[in-house]
Amino acid sequence: LKPASWPGPLLGLRNSVMASGSSADDAAAAARTLSTLLDFGFSQEKAQEAIANIGDPSDAQMAMNWLFDHGEEDRGGCVEFKHCHHIHEAGYGSLVRPASLEYGMPCAEGCGSGENWLCLLCGETRCGRYKKKHGLQHWQETRRAEEKKLTVADAAAGRQALGHFLAVSMSDLSVWCHMCESYVNHEMLVPLVARLEELKFPGESGGAAGAGASGSSSSASGIPAAAKVEVVVGAPMAASKAAMHGRLGEESWAPPSVMRVCSQDARPGYKTALAHEYLDSPSVLESKVAVLAQLVRRSCECTAYTGAGISTASGISDYATKADGSLATEGVQKLSPWAAQPSLAHRVLVAMHRAGHLKHWVQQNHDGLPQKAGFPQQLINEIHGSWYDPSNPVVPMDGSLRCDLVENMYQLEEQTDLCLALGTSMVGMNADRMAMGPAKRAARNQKGAVGTVIVALQQTQYDEMSSLRIFARIDEVMTLLAKQLGLDPDPPQVKACPGKQHVFTDLPYTAEGKKDPNARLTLDLREGSRVRIVNQPDWDMKRWGNTGTVLPTQDSLREEGHFAIRLGREGQVRTLGRWWLDAAIAGSVDVLPVVPCTDVGQA
């Protein structure tokens, strides 16, 4: 577009850039970047501020990074999540020692920038990836110096030059890896960030050393510590009313009681709480569930957001449970995840869906228990991967989420008016937006927003933002909720395979697996048949290929009608859940996970 035809915001930015003495090319680049940022949902004011601060007005990604560094929410694109493997490669000995860290130092190059980052390899402070970019140059120079020292033997052994690849922001203490090109988490970073928190906020936390004594969480855990309170079984929780009960909590409600004491972080290396476990009293629990039922009835777009805690009652272990004699696993027999069956909570959520109360389910787990309970596949987003979907493998720390699932999650977050966050630690994963979006809208009293209800035994960093916070076993809460809503969930049962069908004909899908009411596809899943994986992440295809062979299925999986598929000749064995075939017959999913492999070259 010529400048004269630009929309008002773009023309205004162009004129202001020109007025500052920049070239017409810079002004046009700034306008293009602004257009990109507006398309991603950032406000015009913040987008213009970012462009003014990055130095290069053509770099939209740099502008987005600036916005994320300054508190803006990620609004689009396929996001990678990194648990930085370069830190393992470099080794703990390569990092600076916590005692040597200094906070508030100026840029070592003397530029006077306020956007400073501290190098975690040498301890020096430099300005960041914007404007002068001395921190970025420091990494590039140190990496080039290391590359010159690499020998042929080093290269043969797979060693690479890393340089001073880690830096921590002096603004929010987030850690950036230049090699990953991402914000990163790692257990080796916890004591370093904890020490910087002590320096930045002197006297406001007990630090790592006080982690076991705090009634809330130490700064090392990423959650501000309350005044030191000895945590003993039977003691009341030491926290604000909102953190104990949510924003809708009643003054008359007694605090939750400590039931299990554990001074370990629930999820080490993340923004987590200590692994103490709490319970509301029976009377408070009943009052809270009554409020929960009211919120569910008010909601028009209720979404469940579930973590590993919902499946512990089914015998599947979780990551966050650390306490001896945990309430989450008390009386529960551990099972193979493949043999596990839906908990009462899963079945109540299905009953809520059938009654029109629950519209969608964002599932962090991989276990297929919602589908086993009867929840429709087309309404589930298995954002972190699935054991029963060959096209959606469990995402490794160096992998990335499937783009279509990320986009769907963004849409769900926008339309959800009430989120039921059940059994999730919410340690800062991108998917936590499912709980935070509705919570923030409700806190702003946005029209139609109901908020977020958090149900878990352990504290989370978002408790104060919730509309309602319940400390109880999830099955117990869902039992009371079913009674309040007049629901009768299905009894527990192993749903056997309906017949011995292995060839599925007349499916309304194209050869590419896309739904088309005019198409007719035959999917042969007899032993030895070849299939092609559809909609597979690029990183997974590079690792395992995109074709597979149907194998004999193990007894427990065969009884439920699932199919086993080996990728490549010696690759992973993956399971295709029976519900995918039911959905294919009904034409209820948009894309199938597998289709016949008809191209010999793909086999």
The biggest beta sheet is recorded as: 6 strands, mixed
Number of helices: 18
Q: Helix share of residues? A: 25-40%
Distance between the termini: 47 Å
Structural class: alpha/beta
Tell me the β content.
5-15%
Find the count of extended strands (DSSP E, 2+ residues): 21
- Whole-number mean pLDDT: 84
Query: What shape does the CA trace take?
Result: globular
Compute the gyration radius: what is it?
Answer: 26 Å
Low-pLDDT stretches are 1-7, 74-81, 205-228
Strand arrangement across the biggest beta sheet? 1-6-5-4-2-3
What is the gist of this entry?
The protein is an alpha/beta fold and 603 residues long.
Give an account of the 3D structure:
The protein is 30% helix and 13% strand. It is built from 18 helices and 21 strands. By secondary structure, it is α/β, with parallel strands linked by helices. The protein has helices at residues 8-19, 24-39, 44-53, 60-69, 85-90, 134-149, 152-156, 190-200, 241-245, 282-298, 344-354, 369-373, 403-415, 433-443, 474-485, 538-544, 555-559, 578-586, and strands at residues 82-83, 116-119, 125-127, 166-169, 175-177, 182-185, 257-260, 277-279, 302-306, 360-363, 380-381, 418-422, 451-455, 468-470, 503-507, 521-524, 530-533, 547-551, 563-567, 573-576, 594-596.
Key structural traits:
13% strand; alpha/beta; six-stranded parallel sheet; 603 residues; six-stranded mixed sheet
